[in-house]
Design brief:
42% helix; alpha/beta; Rossmann fold; 7-stranded mixed β-sheet; Arc Repressor Mutant, subunit A; 14 helices; 11 strands; two-stranded antiparallel sheet
Length: 349
């Protein structure tokens, strides 16, 4: 996107909402674009629904809209397609998908938030493109729409005129990128500071994903190996040790991992160890040397390299980010206390 100065006229942002939409998928981008107007941006926002009636979000909050889709005139500079928990129903709604196609045809940039990527994919707008969605649903997006190249760890992805973002709050990241494209980094940074969010969030979605569930396998010998790794991440899980445990050759173990798990034995073991280290960092105060030893990394430096390689952050930064919101340090008064001045805490992500 080329920078467009404030005096050149407003950027038109159209946000399409529908019953069951997730509220933050809608309000996150709205806050970014309206805040940008305070720092030199020039956005005009329009909320549209299929029939012009208000919609009820997945949280039960009702959203008023400006007009029905049929009354939307002109070309949108940005079209926002939010998502919702009931995306599986939404992608089977042919009328809804027709609206998405119509709005996309009249937009210069189409941006989805979270599971809004499923609507774009079902409408055929992501065929042959790279895309992102919430980490919980990235595999389903890839399986249902094989023509889409899903980037599971990305916070947001731009491919041509289409931008897709990860879960919920990632719509803020995507919107900041759009603001930067229109008005430059200084305006986007001012908005990020105003909203107390990252200008560029460190790391990818792997920071937020749940622990890996043991992969389904029909091979009992492989199941024994997988269970042993999960039960004792710090144990001896070399390829030869796995082969002895399974009672088969090392070559056969490697083949089974590739066929049944979709990765190599070494990468699987490292992932399990990484997740075990994440859990220890989130819930305990053990030194990094202890965590490295118990999870099989051996040394703090090996642990650090694995975190940076897979999550984009160091173990220390991960612990600081996910252990607490920092509210305990803010000296928040209880109902029986009068407010007291306190030192400001450093805002987190």
């Amino acid at each position: 996107m080329n920078h467009k100065h404030a005096g050149a006229g407003p950027h038109l942002v159209t946000i399409f909402v529908f019953p069951g939409v997730r509220l933050l998928d809608v309000t996150g981008p709205i806050e970014v674009f309206t805040a940008a107007n305070d720092f030199g941006g020039n956005y005009r926002l329009t909320l549209v629904s299929a029939d012009g009636n208000e919609v009820t979000t997945s949280s039960g909050t009702r959203l008023s809209v400006d007009m029905p889709v049929a009354d939307a005139q002109g070309t949108s500079d940005v079209l926002v397609i939010p998502g919702g928990p009931d995306w599986d129903r939404a992608i089977k709604d042919d009328a809804l998908l027709d609206i998405v196609r119509k709005l996309d045809a009249d937009s210069r940039c189409t941006a989805s938030v979270c599971t809004g990527a499923f609507l774009l994919a079902a409408a055929g707008l992501l065929d042959g493109r790279r895309a992102a969605t919430h980490w919980r649903y990235s595999q389903q997006l890839a399986l249902r729409f094989p023509a889409v190249q899903v980037e599971a760890d990305a916070i947001f992805v731009q491919d041509g005129k289409v931008m897709t973002s990860a879960g919920v709050s990632a719509g803020i990241d995507l919107s900041l990128a759009i603001v930067e494209g229109h008005y430059g980094a200084e305006v986007a940074r001012a908005v990020a500071r105003d909203l107390v969010v990252f200008m560029q969030r460190p790391g990818g979605q792997s920071q937020f994903s749940v622990r890996t569930r043991a992969p389904h396998t029909r091979q009992e010998m492989l199941r024994r190996v997988l269970d042993a790794v999960a039960e004792d991440p710090g144990g001896n899980h070399t390829l030869s040790a796995m082969a002895r445990r399974a009672g088969i050759s090392s070559r056969h173990v490697t083949r089974l991992f590739c066929e049944e798990v979709g990765t190599t034995p070494a990468r699987y073991v490292e992932q399990i160890r990484l997740e075990a280290a994440q859990a220890m960092l989130e819930t305990g105060d053990d030194p990094l040397a202890v965590i490295a030893r118990r999870t099989g990394f051996g040394s703090p430096e090996s642990l650090r390299r694995a975190f940076v390689r897979h999550l984009g952050v160091t173990p220390g930064a991960f612990r600081a980010r996910f252990r607490t919101t920092g509210v305990a340090d803010a000296d928040v008064p209880s109902n029986s206390e009068s407010p007291r001045p306190s030192q400001p805490t450093r805002p987190g992500p």
